[in-house]
TrEMBL record:
It comes from the Bacteria. This is HAD family phosphatase. It holds the Pfam family Hydrolase. Coiled coil: none annotated. PANTHER family: 2-DEOXYGLUCOSE-6-PHOSPHATE PHOSPHATASE 2, PSEUDOURIDINE-5'-PHOSPHATASE. InterPro entries: HAD-like_sf, HAD-SF_hydro_IA, HAD_sf, PGP-like_dom2. It comes from Streptomyces tricolor.
């Protein structure tokens, strides 16, 4: 899947206030948040710099421009943002080429949403080249559309990606359930007015109004997501 333009007439779930499900990718569906950090550590080591482990919580879940820019400034590395972005994407692609583990419960949830004909979108801050590689493993048929971080003018933590996904599926953002693993992604989904399920991967995420925190996707199924909409009534 290389286009973010959805097919017309996407079906919504009859008899349910839930109109669509919008899913983050790294750390939510695929166990790759650690991959990004490992690649960042390796790239900066090749540049003669050691990354502080505490920086991991700063860069997790954010767009490449933010995380890479922060690391350049923090280390003083002699590299441009464009050069670093290329190295990080190449390193990540090599990693997922060797292994791409799914998060527990991800395959079952995707299959259930697909079989129930729930409009579903993949919404990620990762670049299109990365998303397409991951989609080949997840199965592009599970998603009516996908939104990449390098295809929007403002990506997470801004609401734009989730607003675009909801519009593409013909859904009211308030009737969309979003599943995210980072505070950055949660902020984006909540700013868009969506109901959020947080499944923290690297850093803790506290509960809040309109937000449900679970420990694993194994706790999330279609009945659970529909229940989030019922709570709004």
């Amino acid at each position: 899947m290389t286009s973010t333009v959805p097919a017309l007439g996407t079906r919504t779930a009859e008899g349910s206030a839930l109109q669509a499900v919008l899913l983050d990718m790294d750390g939510t569906l695929v166990d790759t948040e650690g991959f990004w950090w490992d690649v960042e550590v390796e790239v900066f080591a090749s540049l003669g710099h050691t990354l502080d482990e505490t920086w991991r919580h700063v860069v997790v879940g954010g767009p490449m421009t933010r995380s890479a820019g922060f690391l350049i400034e923090a280390t003083g590395a002699d590299i441009t943002l464009a050069e670093l972005t290329l190295l990080l994407n190449e390193g990540f692609e090599q990693r997922i080429g060797r292994a791409l583990p799914l998060m527990p419960g991800a395959a079952r949830l995707l299959a259930e949403l697909y079989e129930s004909e729930i409009p579903t979108a993949l919404v990620s801050a990762s670049h299109r080249r990365i998303i397409d590689r991951v989609l080949s493993v997840l199965g592009p048929h599970h998603f009516a559309l996908s939104i990449a971080g390098d295809e929007v003018s403002r990506t997470k933590p801004f609401p734009d990606p989730y607003l675009l996904a909801a519009a593409g599926l013909g859904a009211d953002p308030a009737r969309c359930a979003v599943v995210e693993d980072t505070a950055t992604g949660v902020a984006a989904a909540e700013a868009a007015g969506c109901r959020v399920v947080a499944v923290p991967s690297v850093a803790p995420i506290g509960p809040a109004t309109g937000r449900t925190v679970v420990s694993s996707l194994e706790e999330v199924d279609l009945a659970f997501l529909r229940g989030l909409m019922t709570e709004m009534r």
